[in-house]
Amino acid sequence: MLLIDCPYCGRRPEIEFAYGGQAHLVRPARPADLDDQQWAEYLYIRSNPRGRHAERWRHIRGCGRFFNAVRDTTTDQFLGTYRIGGTPPS
Ligand SMILES: [Zn+2]
Fold first, then answer.
1. Alpha carbon of 57 to ligand 1 centroid (Å)
2. What fold does the segment set 3-83 form as a domain?
3. Distance from residue 10's CA to the centre of ligand 1 (Å)
4. Where are the domains of the chain?
5. How far does Cα 75 stand from its chain's mean position?
6. pLDDT in tens, 35-86
7. If you measure from the C-alpha of residue 50 to the centroid of ligand 1, how many angstroms do you get, rounded to a whole number?
8. pLDDT value at 12 more than 90
9. By CB distance 3.0 to 4.6 Å, which of 6, 12, 52, 90 could disulfide with 59?
10. Residue 75: which residues within 8 A CB-CB, separation 6 or more?
11. Is pLDDT above 90 for 1?
């Protein structure tokens, strides 16, 4: 069973967590200034790298909090987790 380190609760089984998409997305400061193409790219276009990827996760069946994780998409191994606003592991 895959175990994930919640930065608030510690190591728990993966069934307690939900994937929340790509991490570190920044909402445009003035969305009304964007054209439709730029807005659509902000809403729907995500990176899909092979290897190291920063992701947002939620401990939905635990503390309920969101956090970030760096995961290797080729091995499904978590390289580290950190709180929102924290620094990704190197
Ligand atoms: Zn938790």
1. 10
2. Folate-binding fold (3.30.2270)
3. 7
4. 3-83
5. 17
6. 999 999 999 999 999 999 999 999 999 999 999 999 999 999 999 999 999 9
7. 27
8. yes
9. 6
10. none
11. no
How many other C-beta atoms lie within 10 A of the C-beta of residue 18? 13
d(CA 84, CA 34): 26
Residue 25 has what pLDDT? 94
CA 30–ligand 1 middle distance (angstroms): 33
What distance in angstroms lies between residue 12's CA and the mean position of ligand 1's atoms? 8
Task: From 88, 80, 86, 85, select the one nearest 11 (Cα to Cα).
Answer: 80
- HSE-up of residue 20 (Cα within 13 Å, Cβ side): 19
Ligand 1 centroid – CA 6 distance (Å): 5
pTM exceeding the 0.85 threshold for the entire prediction: yes
In which region does residue 79 sit, left (phi positive, over 0), alpha (psi from -120 to 50) or beta (all else)?
A: alpha
